[in-house]
Backbone:
């Protein structure tokens, strides 16, 4: 039995375009979901993972599979449907799962043979067995899986050439920020894999550099922090020799021992959501952790950096409290906090989030012809109507934010700081130039987007 597991092309970037920009290599990440599914698949299945971001596959020349499994974030949904249609025309059954299939079940049901909602660990064997017997059900719901003991992901199946390997050590986040799908999809309970399993799986990863995909690396409660420390100790003891980056909330900075252990275990960078430079903005997004009284962001960032760990700060533009000037304000705040890189994104109503419900109720989702419009749900385009910012206005804010933060003098100042503090100046330089290059490419993308959105008869003035 032959199984293809497919990660559809992502409209943001693909390694196929590496010739256009060599920085793209650092923007293509392994589709861990498919590697996890492969890890649970019995040996009688011959598996190929096809990552369309890594190279354009020639499906007609490939042997006919018995089953196709497709994953998709919302922004990949259109391409996922094209791929599904191709295989269904050949009579091959197609099953789709992942965040988009879960949040947009009806839309996906119309376009594939079977849908897996939620996490797949509890249902995947049943799906394969039903596919083998030719009696796939229309829907399987995996809900929230028990992940304390799961088989390791198949790290051997993808081609060489990715800059980073990938692994997951926990799932779920109790914080439930309004714009984020994680709590809706993976639940509020913080679930942790066994430390032995994680260490064993790390050893299977070929790449020296690894992305730990956890949404919240160290969790929120004291017992989560204790477990994170135990994990880092075990990783250091195992001498894995990996360098890894992860996502964390700002409380990561609050425990010196935790930071020291993380660095010893190979942590070289964290991606932290600051989201808004104002308390009103944080309240609007329900970003509770960042609101704790007395939090000094600059001191927190410095504490992390002192352990040789780079900090990428993420911010959102387009909140109801955001007024003209917000782009520059974010760039100044990020510089003041001292982050090594800034990743600013447009407020985007992702299906299944509280923000989606709110903006839909207020009729503020402008790109709402689905599935076509999903391709713009990459957080890099303003798909909604924003309270104090017109379409041109919000794009100008984004450009002003990036122009300010990624001006050459500021980049050089930051990299000099990294050099001085012996904090991976090379990675910092590559990261900064990569962001600078990508924001310069975005002028053309915005022009195309404005034409597209204009054709939607959008009233481009602020409401
Ligand atoms: C790692 C990650 C990335 C990485 C790598 C992506 C990749 N190649 O896989 C990077 C940094 C590149 C990235 C980019 C983006 N991301 Co991201 N990312 C994640 C993150 C943190 C983890 C994903 C992961 O690997 N999980 C581990 C695996 C094992 O879990 P899983 O994917 O859920 O898979 C399980 C089930 O869903 C199911 N399943 C999944 N696929 C399939 C397929 C079949 C056939 C079956 C049966 C089951 C199944 O089975 C798996 C095992 O249970 C998630 C948050 C999250 N917790 O999911 C956000 C998340 C997926 N990202 C999100 C977003 C918005 C983006 C960006 C648009 C944002 C941006 N501009 O940076 C881009 C878009 C990229 C694109 N492809 O278009 C949103 C997506 C929401 C949505 N509705 O689409 C999420 C949910 C975070 C959030 N804040 O809401 N991301
Ligand atoms: S943004 Fe981060 S902290 Fe907030 S719910 Fe999502 S994963 Fe949790």
Residues:
């Amino acid at each position: 039995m032959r199984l293809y597991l497919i990660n559809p092309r992502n409209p943001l970037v693909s390694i196929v375009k590496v010739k256009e920009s060599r920085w793209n290599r650092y923007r293509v990440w392994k589709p861990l979901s498919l590697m996890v599914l492969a890890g649970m698949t019995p040996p009688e299945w011959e598996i190929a993972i096809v990552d369309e971001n890594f190279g354009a596959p020639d499906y007609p020349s490939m042997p006919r599979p018995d089953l196709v499994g497709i994953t998709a974030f919302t922004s990949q949904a259109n391409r996922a449907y094209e791929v599904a249609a191709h295989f269904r025309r050949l009579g091959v059954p197609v099953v789709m799962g992942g965040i988009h299939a879960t949040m947009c079940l009806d839309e996906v049901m119309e376009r594939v043979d079977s849908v897996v909602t939620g996490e797949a660990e509890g249902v995947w064997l049943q799906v394969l067995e039903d596919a083998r017997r030719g009696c796939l059900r229309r829907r399987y719901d995996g809900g929230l899986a028990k992940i304390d003991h799961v088989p390791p992901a198949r790290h051997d199946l993808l081609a060489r050439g990715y800059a980073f390997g990938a692994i997951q050590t926990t799932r779920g986040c109790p914080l439930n920020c309004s714009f984020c799908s994680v709590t809706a999809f993976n639940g509020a309970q913080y679930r942790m894999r066994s430390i032995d399993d994680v260490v064993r799986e790390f050893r299977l990863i070929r790449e020296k550099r690894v992305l730990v995909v956890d949404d919240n690396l160290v969790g929120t409660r004291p017992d989560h922090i204790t477990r994170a420390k135990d994990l880092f100790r075990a990783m250091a003891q195992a001498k894995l020799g990996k360098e890894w980056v992860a996502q964390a909330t700002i409380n990561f900075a609050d425990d010196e021992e935790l930071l020291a252990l993380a660095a010893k275990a190979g942590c070289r960078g964290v991606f932290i959501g600051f989201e808004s430079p104002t308390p009103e903005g944080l309240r609007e997004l329900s970003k509770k952790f960042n609101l704790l009284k007395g939090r000094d962001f600059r001191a927190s960032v410095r504490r992390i950096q002192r352990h040789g760990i780079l900090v990428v700060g993420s911010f959102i533009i387009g909140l109801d409290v955001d007024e003209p000037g917000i782009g520059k304000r974010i760039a100044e705040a990020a510089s003041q906090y001292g982050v090594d890189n800034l990743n600013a994104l447009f407020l985007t109503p992702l299906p299944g989030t509280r923000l989606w419900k709110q903006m839909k109720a207020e009729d503020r989702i402008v790109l709402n012809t689905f599935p076509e419009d999903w391709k713009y749900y990459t957080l890099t385009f303003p798909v909604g109507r924003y309270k104090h910012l017109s379409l041109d206005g919000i794009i100008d804010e984004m450009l002003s934010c990036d122009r300010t933060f990624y001006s050459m003098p500021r980049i050089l100042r930051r990299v000099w700081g990294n050099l001085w503090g012996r904090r991976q100046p090379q990675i910092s330089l590559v990261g900064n130039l990569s962001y600078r290059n990508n924001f310069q490419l975005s002028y053309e993308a915005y022009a195309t987007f404005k034409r597209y959105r204009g054709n939607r008869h959008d009233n481009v003035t602020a409401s």
The first strand starts at residue 2 and ends at 7.
